[in-house]
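REVIEWER CHECKLIST
Item 1: Sequence provided? yes
Item 2: Single chain? yes
Item 3: Sequence as submitted:
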Amino acid sequence: MNEIDDPQQLERVARLVELGLGHELTRRELIRRGLALGLSLPSIAAALAACGVDPAASRGSLSAWRPTATPAPSQVALPAVLNGATQPVTPAPASPTAPAATAAAPTAAPSSTPSPPTRFAVIGDYGMEGEPAAAVAGLVTSWAPDFVLTLGDNNYPDGAAATLDRNVGQYYSPFIGPYRGAFGPGAAENRFFPVLGNHDWVVGYPEPYLGYFSLPGNGRYYRVDRGSLSIFCLDSMPGEPDGWTADSPQAAWLQAELANAPGRWRLVTMHHAPFSSGHHGSADWMRWPFAAWGAQLVLAGHDHTYERVHRDGITYVVNGLGGAARYARGMSAVEGSQLFFNADHGAMLVEADGVSLRARFIARDERVIDEFTLT
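Item 4: Structure as written out by the authors:
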């Protein structure tokens, strides 16, 4: 049945139209409320048109951020957030050898002709149907990113096939291809690249996950090249058939792939954070020699917080505020922690070209919580 022919869905479309006609709401807020009502983007677009709002503009003009020049670290006052309290401070290195917020990447000099920028979103621990997940999805959709990376726990509570489409497809189907769910036609080409989390493994071998997504390689760990980026998506879950330690076959694959990656920027994504000041704390088994192997940025989730850490000459990020319940801070901060935030849900927006990689964590109310640049 077409969604618009379903009486319950039609009523929800009508409610969204009524909201749009009766209130001065932004396009992004209408999209967010439509997702919260469980509507697909085609139905939301129909409601926007009925409200006199150009639905086609949602592909490009909704972005809350346009890249700007980033001042030197000594000139940037970043918010330091501890258990929800925000204080503007200028972060200091954890030790005399710790890198500053703008880190020099150990790689070849950039090309004199910058490559076209690539924009992408990063979400973590998002796979729980509800208002927070819908709000973050609305924010991400408003950016019109080229693709979306996830950092695991795509499908709460136990990775079952019955909950996948409600937890993922209703919010992100326009990025998933081929898409076989109930929320719109999906993407012509896949633009959604998840990693496995512990909740995706609860039912055992992650067959629902592997059947739902069409991913490169074996689907559990793989590489994606986009523009100036080479992205390596790992399975950090103990129980991974090819191992989860630095001397495992999976790690050997990563080392070899990093050595031959074409991207100016080499990013590693996983679920369990090698360094985290959150409730779960650090996943020691994932402290692989990423910097020595050539990685420049490591992104993880698991703790439902946001944190930026400088260790081993590179930046580590914990980004687990995509929709599940937020976590408190742990007992102590890890060495090299530059910023910790857990006051609201949100996502990362990243833009990369042949010269620089700029990243922001943006809360669902569009506050910029953190910003850093790699050059």
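Item 5: Key structural point noted by reviewer: The chain has eight helices and 15 strands.
Item 6: Recommendation: ____
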